[in-house]
Design a protein that fits this description.
Largest sheet: 7 strands, mixed
Strand order of the largest sheet: 6-5-4-7-10-15-16
Number of helices: 12
Helix content: 25-40%
Oligomer: single chain
Number of strands: 16
Order of helices and strands: HEEEHHHHHEHEHEHEEEHEEHEEEEEH
Shape: globular
Distance between the termini: 39 Å
Structural class: alpha/beta
Bound molecules: 5-S-methyl-1-O-phosphono-5-thio-D-ribulose
Length: about 375
């Protein structure tokens, strides 16, 4: 087993004297190529998130944290260029900015962060991570701009490292609900490549497989973009975890034939009542699982839980380009003139969810509010 997850970091800050930049796996190329791209500006981070070079709620969150640091560095080079960000950090002697200039730095920074936050609307991890960076900015108002940048970079690296630890905890809690020799159905990609490493739903699979190598995964292909076919199979095959690719409409066939014992998926936003937005097609799987009495679990970090919204009715669902539906490998697969609606996510009602697997343990949807307190 190659343990792919332990070899990769989907997204990582690369430190340099000037501060550094973001390096990420280009997920639009998988499984054809495994390439990394360097992202050095706010605008290119916005595009990387929008075009799904980086995707998956936790990975998007880290991209957001990196984007904040990148934009602060861009502004630093405009307001107070520096040769070495890490030298003389404790003194403001190198910066002779008046109060108005400092005020404009922070105003521009805030505007850039809000722009970045609009790149994809559904995964709450993006606004959560940008919110974490906003707290750093708030606490750095009296520091030099160099120190603000250094703090934002260090905080982004902290969030990166924490993401891996959190996923391992989710995996270990989740492994306790996987029966021996289970067939596990998953949808989309909630793996190492949707996070910094290890994965959420696939973190559960990885931890379960480490204890019992007779489990098997059934991976939905996940139209329209095929994250299950392209990314989940890429990860699991490299880890030597037995995986069967199925098309999205097949799940009830496998459920009826008793090949699925449990469903584990990721999440993009979980409301206070446990309603869960995840990749389009997830709720269809949950409804079929309920019919066949198969437990349906959601694996997600607490940063995906949005206690500010009561139910899934308040979750904004991203609508994406028609071409994702009409085109396959650059070829149109349907009649010209047909109408297309392409919602990227759907909401699974809390009544269909057996449990939400977090780093703090497994909760019933209705327990979230009382059991989880967020800062
Ligand atoms: O549009 P995507 O590929 O970003 O959607 C990803 C999903 O829906 C994942 O299941 C979710 O983000 C959880 S990732 C750990």
């Amino acid at each position: 087993m190659s343990e792919f997850h332990s070899k990769i970091k989907t997204i990582e800050w690369h430190k340099t004297n000037q501060g550094g930049y973001s390096v990420m796996v280009d997920q639009t190329k998988i499984p054809y190529a495994y390439e990394k791209v360097e992202i050095k500006t706010l605008n290119s981070m916005y595009d990387a998130i929008k075009t799904m070079i980086v995707r998956g709620a936790p990975a998007i969150g880290i991209a957001g944290a990196h984007g904040c640091a990148l934009f602060a560095l861009e502004l630093l080079s405009k307001y107070a260029p520096t040769e070495d960000l890490w030298q003389n950090n404790k003194t403001s002697a190198n910066e002779n900015l008046d109060e108005n200039q400092k005020k404009s730095f922070f105003e521009e920074l805030e505007e850039g962060l809000n722009y970045l936050n609009s790149s994809r609307p559904t995964a709450v991890n993006l606004s959560w991570a940008i919110g974490e960076q906003k707290k750093v900015i708030e606490n750095s108002k009296t520091l030099t701009l160099k120190e603000v940048c250094a703090n934002l970079i260090n905080n982004a690296i902290r969030l990166e490292n924490e993401d891996i630890e959190i996923n391992k905890k989710i995996g270990d809690h989740g492994a306790t609900i996987i029966p021996k020799g289970a067939g596990i159905l998953t949808h989309c990609n909630a793996g190492a490549l949707a996070t910094v490493a290890y994965g959420t739903a696939l973190g559960v699979v990885r931890s379960a497989f480490a204890k019992d190598n007779t489990i098997q995964v059934y991976a939905d292909e996940t139209r329209p973009r095929g994250q299950g076919a392209k990314i989940t199979t890429f990860e699991l095959v490299q880890d030597g975890i037995p995986t069967t690719l199925i098309t999205d409409g097949m799940c009830s066939y496998f459920m009826r034939n008793k090949m699925i014992d449990v469903v584990v998926v990721g999440a993009d936003r979980i409301a206070a009542n446990g309603d869960t937005a995840n990749k389009i097609g997830t709720s269809t799987v949950a409804i079929a699982a309920k019919y066949y009495n198969i437990p349906f679990y959601v694996a997600a970090p607490k940063s995906t839980i949005d206690l500010t919204i009561e139910s899934g009715n308040d979750i904004i669902i991203e609508l994406r380009d028609e071409e994702e539906v009409t085109m396959v490998n650059g070829k149109r697969i349907c009649a010209e003139g047909v109408k297309i609606i392409n919602p990227s996510f759907d909401v699974t009602d809390n009544a269909l969810i057996a449990g939400i697997i977090t780093e703090d343990g497994i909760f019933k949807p209705q327990e979230l509010k009382s059991k989880l307190h967020k800062d």
